[in-house]
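We store chain and fold; thus.
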Amino acid sequence: MYIKLTKEQQQMMISDIQYFFAQDRDEELTEFAAERVLDFVKESLAPHFYNAALKDVKFVVEQQFTSLEEEIMTLERPIKK
């Protein structure tokens, strides 16, 4: 799965990764190493988050569709026989 990021987004994420390693692991990460971590996350982990988000969206859309369907049915008029 290919995720396209702007240069600004990628640079911000690389900086965040470097900050995380510095603060939480007491490790200095070069920009290149942080970029490799970002590539790993994009290739290996991001699809899991993406798929979970799709399931959430599907649930919300289904709920809205059900609600819309119920609203439409309230407009139905009785038919006299």
Q: What stands out?
A: The longest helix spans residues 31-73. The chain has a mean pLDDT of 94.
